[in-house]
Specification:
With about 325 residues, the chain is of the alpha/beta class. Helices cover about 35% and strands about 20% of the residues. Strands 6-7-8-3-9-10-12-11 form an 8-stranded mixed β-sheet, sandwiched between helices. It has a 4-stranded antiparallel β-sheet with strand order 2-1-4-5, covered by helices on one side. It binds iron/sulfur cluster. Iron/sulfur cluster binds near residues 310 and 324. Iron/sulfur cluster (SF4) binds near residues 251, 301 and 324.
């Protein structure tokens, strides 16, 4: 049995009808150990949110499996009612848009107390008030009396997102899928929200699948964890954050990192940008043959990259890369034959 608390195994998700079928997620596999942070990064439309929804149980995979604590969460084989409940409560999602994910007609108390009472984490209203107050304090919404009777529209975007975090915590999850959880928050509030999410990991041992288009945010939040870079539905590189940030191997990872601005404007100006052959992201309806990055890749090798799709292979030190050039350089030419 693996050590992963949550694991994606060969996940595939297709949308549409037989006439116009697109594959939004194509053979994605990775696992997350308890207490670990794994970031999924990539441009919008690369399949990271779809992957997150499959992990959180909001979307059924077309193929492949999601395992929680070793159990296949979609298959019925050997899954008891307790297993299903453990997964439903154990994996929670924080959505990008707190405006859409909080019921506008409920007070903050009602939003947070409903799951507490429903799942019997508290027995009565007095206990619910105590728990809700604790949760609001934990996410930095204090004094509690200023928030508990308010409606979502009476709060700022940053405060609403803190309520979303508190709501995810009501059922004491082991895993949180945070889908662009800080991207709609002002830059000035982003760091404090990331600090709150980080404190949940330190204090409560929460495991994260952190989804973001912003490599700078991934670097900040997951320095002790790992980053999986996605491109057009597949993972092209998976490595520890320091490895990926300091020494990216896949050309797409290099391009993403070369576009991240530095704190020092002088450093940003002097930074060498990887020149892509094209800036157009391929359509899911007309994916290129071979490596899907080849129409943009400055290292493209004719007759190989446009013919054969590279597999995601281990290249040592716990990192995985899907690139013929990298496999050739690190594993030797036979590896790509
Ligand atoms: Fe570039 Fe070829 Fe590697 Fe694809 S396989 S990233 S085209 S070098």
């Amino acid at each position: 049995m693996s050590d992963y608390i949550i694991e994606a195994q060969n996940l595939v998700r297709r949308f549409g009808s037989r006439k116009s079928l697109v594959t939004a997620v194509d053979n994605v596999s990775f696992g997350i150990e308890e207490g670990e942070v794994v970031c999924l990064v990539g441009e919008s439309g690369c399949g990271k949110t779809t992957t997150g929804k499959m992990i959180a149980g909001l979307l059924k995979p077309t193929e492949g499996r999601v395992r929680y604590a070793g159990r296949d969460v979609w298959g019925d084989n050997g899954r008891s009612k307790e297993d299903r409940k453990a997964y439903r409560l154990g994996v929670q999602i924080i959505h990008q848009d707190p405006y859409a994910s909080l019921n506008p007609s409920h007070t903050i108390f009602k939003i947070l107390s409903t799951p507490l009472l429903h799942h019997r984490f508290v027995q009565n209203r007095a206990e619910a008030i105590e728990q809700v107050s604790e949760l609001l304090t934990r996410v930095g919404l204090s004094p509690v009396e200023d928030f508990i009777t308010k409606y979502p529209h009476q709060l700022s975007g940053g405060q609403r997102q803190r309520v979303s975090v508190a709501r995810a915590l009501t059922v004491k999850p082991k895993v949180i899928v945070a889908d662009e959880a800080v991207s709609m928050v002002d830059v000035s509030l982003r760091v404090s929200l990331l600090d709150i999410l980080g404190s949940l990991k330190r204090d409560l041992g929460v495991t994260y699948l952190f989804i973001t288009h912003d490599l700078a945010v991934a670097k900040f939040f997951a320095w002790a964890g790992r980053i999986a870079v996605m491109y057009v539905g597949s993972i092209v590189e998976l490595a520890s954050t320091p490895q990926l940030v300091n020494d990216p191997l896949h050309p797409y990872s290099k391009a993403l990192l070369s576009a991240v601005p530095e704190a020092d404007p002088e450093l940003t100006r002097s930074k060498e940008r990887l020149q892509l052959r094209s800036h157009d992201i391929p359509s899911l309806f007309a994916l290129p043959h071979g490596c899907r990055f080849h129409p943009r890749c400055p290292f493209f090798m004719e007759g190989l990259c446009d013919v054969k799709r590279p597999d995601l292979v281990p290249v040592g030190n716990g990192r995985w890369v899907a690139c013929h050039l990298v496999a050739r350089e690190i594993l030797g030419s036979d590896a790509v034959a």
